[in-house]
Amino acid sequence: MSNTLNNSLLTLDARTKKRNAAETRFRVYGIAAIGAGLAMLILLLLTIFGNGLGAFQQTFVTLNVPLLEEKLDKNSTRNLEKIKKVSTFGYAPLLKQAMEDTLAENGIETDLKSKKQAALLSKSAAAQLRNYVLANPDMIGATVEFTFLANARVDGYLKDRVTRESIADDKNINAAQLDLVDALLAAEVIEQRFNLSFITGADASDQRPEAAGMGVSMLGSFFMMLVVLALALPIGVAASIYLEEFAPKNWITDIIEVNISNLAAVPSIVFGILGLAVFINSMHLPQSAPLVGGLVLTLMTLPTIIISTRASLKSVPPSIRDAALGVGASKMQSVFHHVLPLAAPGILTGTIIGLAQALGETAPLLLIGMIGFIASNAPDSVASGFLDPNSAMPAQIYEWAKRADPAFYERAWGGIIILLVFLITMNTIAVILRRRFERRW
Amino acid sequence: MKDRLMDTIKISAKDVQVYYADNHAIKDVNVEIEDKTVTAFIGPSGCGKSTFLRCLNRMNDTIDICRVEGDILIDGEDIYDRRVDPVQLRAKVGMVFQKPNPFPKSIYDNVAYGPRIHGLARAKSDLDEIVEMSLRKAAIWDEVKDRLDAPGTGLSGGQQQRLCIARAVATAPEVLLMDEPCSALDPIATAQVEELIDELRQNFAVVIVTHSMQQAARVSQKTAFFHLGNLVEYGDTNQIFTKPSDPRTESYITGRIG
Amino acid sequence: MSVFWLTLAVFLIALLGTFAGYRRAFSVVAGDVRKLHSLPKYYGSFVGFTVLIPSLLMLILWLVVPPLEQVSTQFRMFLVLGLAVLLMVLAISRITPDFRARNAVELVVLGLLIAAASLAILTTIGIVLSMLFETRNFFGLYSWKDFFFGLKWAPNFRGDSELSILPLLWGTIYISLIALLVSVPIGLFAAIYLSEYAGPKTRGVAKPLLEILAGIPTIVYGLFALLTVGPLLLRTFGSGGLLGVDWMTGATAVLTAGLVMGIMLIPFVSSLSDDIINAVPQAMRDGSLGLGATKSETIRQVVIPAALPGIIGAILLAASRAIGETMIVVLGAGALAKFSLDPLEAMTTITTRIVSQLTGDGDFASPETLVAFALGLTLFVLTLGLNVIALYIVRTYREQYE
């Protein structure tokens, strides 16, 4: 009995100690792995919110603008056609004037030329002014208080994205202008406010990051999701019912099943190629249209919905089917009257999760032209919502990420926050549905 | 009677209580298990015999909600003492399970697994020797000696169970716990394993949980009857089966409960 | 009449027919529905389906295969609507008390169900055909040998491009490899800890949290690579960086994309492995623990070897995900096609080139654009192969323990 193991149980032998140390090490690896995963999640969320929340705050400049008659309507006709002839260039002097007046009012002195002063405003200010005048021609001659977007550089200065060091080579802004910003800030002419138009507004050209918003691309996503819901849900449920309830066990069924599980793992970009080749090049559907995006995403989401629907159909016990058949219902009736309603919550949950997946998908949209397109106008009817070129939320985010001005990065992160809010809402609804209606047979 | 005098107490349990969450599964069990003896635990299903068996090598530790109170001493040492490492304990108290559960490895590696993790062999030749000896003890050597590299899962049910016994024997335990080792086997394999259990008695204290009273009568010298978490009666197998002292034991043996 | 209104009209006729069929069913038995074979609503649906399906099929056929040019849309309207009305009258006339309307309707519904299930096959065929067709055009313009075995990727929209897949394949594989190096150990250990060590509480918290990573859209990871991880690496390895070395010149690099893709794949690997590890029977663990093995010894020497085929399947699925991933590499990997071992250099992948070749303003008949379809087809075959193998392995693995 030289065996070390035959010693007392109350003392650990050296080997056991070593093995226990290995055990502890192994456990630490596991904790470290989970820690690493969670740390990544936290880092990702911190990055998103740290960079993106700024997009919901925007810098505004409040000015009293004299709507000078001699500039806007020389002959005092108030004829709308005539007033329309004055382009945004014609409004620029008014803005310069308003800026100078405001500076004088607040006793701010600066060496800057009035053009440089007015450059603190967004390039969209003149258009905003013009739109107002065209809508209210009666106000010509009066002095009206306007709240303009500040230029993205000014906005960045207030958000510490633009600093005095970083603008050394910047043609758009100089140190003297920043001094002016400081002064106007003290005079409360410039202030930061919640930026509703980021959520509701349209995209803007790459000269005006301060004016860019998610609203129109949100509509694009909305119409795409309508298409996906209208097609993927009925087709997915029908396919699942067939495979789960009616399909004979033969090689054709096998092929369909293998096919579906493989389609679920096909890279999404391949669906984009399919969409480009079939829907746009062969069927000549319009490019960049939410309808096409919706069709592509439908094909992509179908396998997911089929897989989850089949799981919920499978969870309905056979006894329910037998009961229905037993009272003389046909197979079809037993499925549609009994099995399907019982599986409905599960199907709905799966559909919502599938929709959430489709909502965040970007790659196939790149190929059907939903990128590189400035979604500046909201669709004016339901038909144009489906057929007119539009962007989609993830496509809009990608578009902003590619632009040169870092002011757009903030927009991109902000767009991600909006996208995540949608996704979180959808997934929460799915979880609640599952909890609420989950049935244990 | 001569054997009797040689016997010593190997395991002694005092006032053992086991709880699964709020469920009191084992109540006040006191038992002394002798060395070099086959002790059978019998009783209807759910009576706690397997639970109690698993307490003897602390396999219940792997179940989170399980709680054990009272003392279980092996060679006078409390196995639930905080200083005891279940790993060392289980090397000393081996276990064979209800269903044969060979690892998805070769026959050789299955048997060598225990000695390897416990560091029982210094050289390959030592290990070879342990493997051969264990397989011989488990009465399966002749059947597998030519295919030690074949997967253990490829053997028949009875062979698999004997392989598992060999695997347990290979760590040189002092006690062998068997949890219904024949329940998944056919009658011929059962007979082989029963024969083997009788031989194992030479070297170990064997504790076997069984469903079958005939099996208990065939293989054991001592029998404990469990009912609803209580140890109703414990004594010589002959006595339990011929003149039980407790009416519940009698009812069970005559087939009125169970 | 536009397609939209025509479709609507067909639906209206069908609706009308449904209602008429319903009434007709009542009238043929003089209101005593017990004499009917089926419920009246089945007679209604029978008429509805009889109108709807052939008329719509006719319309679709017209759209897909345009007839001779002279034929006006006027004619199309008469044809489709005429067919619809004719079918309605015919269907209504067939309604008798003995007519088995329910069986007929159920047969139609079954047909629709089968059609829905076949859409999956149709999609696959569509994918293969659409790419095969354009790929053939591409190989008409560009030698397939140069595509598969050339060494250079240098598209030039004025012609004379060199379009070999090999440098792209190398970039794809390199980035996927880094992604797997990150995700497999972390995902696997996380799965092991969650399934073997963690209590129900830890599991209940950590598992859904990790799965959030899987629910985040890839565009977010792309942005994370481009704007956060890339600059971070550049500040570490770039000139004037933390390490004082000058190994990295731009934020987009193999490592940037690989790391971020690895993060994305962590929950994918961990939830697949979790399922697979849980499929290993408890008896196997008990056997090992009963011999006095520690938990980690049991896991390393019994559970993992038993689960190995399943885990390999999971890794293959993750690899297929990595190879087909687009947004992270489009934003994080760069655009340079080259053979290099330096993970800090920008490199490009098959998916990024598909995007760039198809989003430019290139002529659709030029090899520079058509090459995207050949790339797409290769990507499809590659991922499909991995998936088929992986799903097969996982399925046989599961069956083994069922």
List the helices and strands and how they pair.
The complex is a heterotrimer of chains A (441), B (258) and C (402).
Chain A (H helix, E strand, L loop, with lengths): L13 H39 L4 E10 L2 H4 L7 H5 L3 H18 L8 H5 L6 H11 L7 E7 L2 H7 L16 H12 L3 E5 L1 H5 L14 H32 L4 H13 L4 H15 L7 H25 L3 H9 L4 H30 L2 H5 L14 H6 L5 H10 L4 H31 L4
Antiparallel strand pairs in A: 1-2, 1-3
Helix pairs in contact in A: 1-19, 4-6, 10-13, 10-15, 12-13, 13-15, 14-15, 15-19, 18-19
Chain B lengths: L1 H5 L2 E12 L2 E12 L3 E5 L6 H7 L10 E9 L2 E2 L7 H7 E4 L10 H12 L5 H14 L3 H4 L12 H13 L5 E5 L7 H14 L4 E5 L3 H7 L2 E6 L2 E7 H6 L4 H7 L5
Parallel strand pairs in B: 3-8, 3-9, 6-7, 7-8
Antiparallel strand pairs in B: 1-2, 1-4, 4-5, 9-10
Chain C lengths: L2 H26 L11 H25 L8 H21 L7 H41 L2 H6 L3 E2 L7 E2 L2 H32 L2 H16 L2 H20 L16 H25 L3 H9 L4 H30 L2 H6 L17 H10 L7 H34 L2
Antiparallel strand pairs in C: 1-2
Model description:
The complex is a heterotrimer of chains A (441), B (258) and C (402). Chain A has 441 residues and is mainly alpha-helical. Chain A contains 19 helices and three strands. Helix content of chain A is 64%, strand content 5%. Chain A has a three-stranded antiparallel sheet. In chain A, helix 14 runs antiparallel to helix 15 (331-360). Chain B is α/β, with parallel strands linked by helices and 258 residues long. Chain B has a domain at 2-99 and 175-253: P-loop containing nucleotide triphosphate hydrolases (Rossmann fold, 3-Layer(aba) Sandwich). Chain B has eleven helices and ten strands. Chain C is an all-alpha fold and 402 residues long. Chain C has two domains: 3-115, no CATH class; 153-400, MetI-like (MetI-like fold, Orthogonal Bundle). Chain C has helices at 3-28, 40-64, 73-93, 101-141, 144-149, 166-197, 200-215, 218-237, 254-278, 282-290, 295-324, 327-332, 350-359, 367-400; strands at 153-154, 162-163. Chain C has a two-stranded antiparallel ribbon with strand order 1-2. In chain C, a hairpin with a 7-residue loop joins strand 1 (153-154) and strand 2 (162-163). The model of chain C has no long low-confidence stretch (mean pLDDT 88). Classes of the chains: A mainly alpha (441), B alpha/beta (258), C mainly alpha (402). Chains in contact: A-B, A-C, B-C. Chains A and C meet through helix 1, helix 10, helix 11, helix 12 and helix 13 of A and helix 4, helix 6, helix 7, helix 8 and helix 9 of C.
